[in-house]
Amino acid sequence: MQSDRFAPALLRWFDGHGRTQLPWQHERSPYRVWLSEIMLQQTQVATVIPYYERFLARFPDVRTLAAAPLDDVLALWAGLGYYARARNLHRCAEAVVRAHGGEFPHDIDALTTLPGIGRSTAGAILAFSSGQRHPILDGNVRRVLARYHAVEGPPSAGAVENRLWEFADLHTPAARVADYTQAIMDLGATVCTRTGPRCAICPLARDCRACNDGAVDRYPAARARKQAPVRSRRFLIVRRGSGHILLEARPPTGIWGGLWSLPEIDTHAGADSWCEAHGLRVRRSTSWAVMRHTFSHFHLDIHPLLLEVKTSTRAIMDGDRWLWYKDGDAIEIGLPAPVRRLLDRLDAHDSPEARDDPHRALRKTRQDR
User: Fold this and answer.
1) Predicted model pTM
2) I want to staple 97 with a disulfide (CB 3.0 to 4.6 A). Which of 66, 122, 200, 208 is the partner?
3) Do both 259 and 194 map to the same domain?
4) Residue 152: in which H helix or E strand, if any?
5) Residue 225: inside a domain, yes or no?
6) From its phi and psi, is residue 41 left (phi > 0), alpha (psi between -120 and 50) or beta?
7) Is 17 contained in some domain?
8) Which residues of 95-121 are buried (b: 16+ CB within 10 A; e: fewer)?
9) Does 285 share its domain with 147?
10) Residue 176 sits in the same domain as residue 322
């Protein structure tokens, strides 16, 4: 195995096939690199690009982001998933402004003390923005190194991860660090893919142990997976006569932390009493088909109940916890993806076509699942 051939071969491949026109490559300031790296965690490039561009237009620098309300940040993040990243992004921006005068530290140890920034992300920020030599170990790099060196065991295991970090450091060159860092990520994303890797065009195939042994599918070893549990929630789509929908602020941590969601109850049978307790009178209720939303570690079966209500003087008012919301309002809020889908279905249900054919919206609901 020739470790001294690894980086040169990868860089030659990058010069002809690497990705060099991604939006965050146009100006590699620490802020822009950090923003892109956080968004790219567990998310594909094609998905990230429009979010990154909208985010940068709204928050062009770390001070603007730090000064923004968290609601504004979550509103732009909505649909990208893994919302803890957005909350940490905001906390990190505040810390950079408060503790570092609005400038990202140029020391890797200082960077890793900031919210949401681990060793690999810190290494990427410094490699891309200032050419410092630091190894990285994101999911794509883990896969490349595990196959190249035929590393046994799941990468999430402590000893395996340490071994992969050793190889990551071994292969990171002293020169062209930014290009190398991009190259090894690109190789994992476009050639050494999780399924169907294109070994015939891989610049590392000559010395790749997994390729030479015909065992590419064996590496990296998959972590033993348990069957994902299924949880159920009953969501209330509470709509008053003006068309506004009642939303409730989620707790700052946990699933959809800090976003606006629909109220939840234990059973649909309790909807009338819930509404009465909140100054609302149910005029009409309609049960919708169950909608499943899948998280990384469980499935959530959502049972929606549409409630057309009349408000009283005791009705819920807008505040920190509650919001009467209507699409088109001059307000930016963060909505979880399944809540947005339910509101879109409500729009479809109210369309002229749906009024002409009451079953049309239900058919569309089932097709959307």
Assistant:
1) 0.79
2) 66
3) no
4) none
5) no
6) beta
7) yes
8) bbbeeeeeebbeeeeebeebebbebbb
9) no
10) no
19 shares its domain with 112: yes
C-alpha 212/C-alpha 219 separation (Å) is: 13
Q: What is the pLDDT of residue 350?
A: 63
**Could you give the number of structural domains in the chain?**
2
pLDDT in tens, 64-115: 999 999 989 999 998 888 899 999 999 999 999 999 999 999 999 999 999 9
184 and 236 within one domain: no
Domain holding 333, by residue range, is: 230-368
- How many other β-carbons are positioned within 10 Å of the β-carbon of residue 156? 11
Judgement on whether residues 271 and 191 belong to the same structural domain of the protein: no
End-to-end CA distance of the chain: 49
- Angle (CA) 32-35-41 rounded to 5° is 135
**Digit-coded pLDDT (tens) for 304-355:** 999 999 988 777 887 779 999 987 776 778 899 899 999 988 876 664 444 4
Which positions are annotated as active-site residues? 37
d(CA 124, CA 134): 7
224 occurs within a structural domain: no
In-domain check, residue 223: no
Domain of 258, CATH number, reads: 3.90.79.10
235 and 205 within one domain: no
Nearest to 235 by CA among 291, 311, 312: 291
Instruction: Judge residue 57's burial from the number of C-beta atoms within 10 Å of its C-beta, 0-12 exposed, 13-18 middle, 19 or more buried.
Output: exposed
**For residue 359, is pLDDT > 60?**
no
Token duo for residue 59: 């928050």
- Outline where 101-175 has alpha helix (H): 108-111, 119-130, 139-148, 158-171
239: its two tokens = 């709509």
* Residues paired with residue 307 on neighbouring β-strands, in sequence order: 238, 285
Q: What distance in Å separates the CA atoms of residue 176 and residue 15, rounded to the nearest whole number?
A: 11
Q: Dihedral angle at the C-alpha atoms of 327, 329, 331, 333, nearest 10 degrees?
A: -20
Which pair of structure tokens corresponds to residue 80? Answer: 């990208």
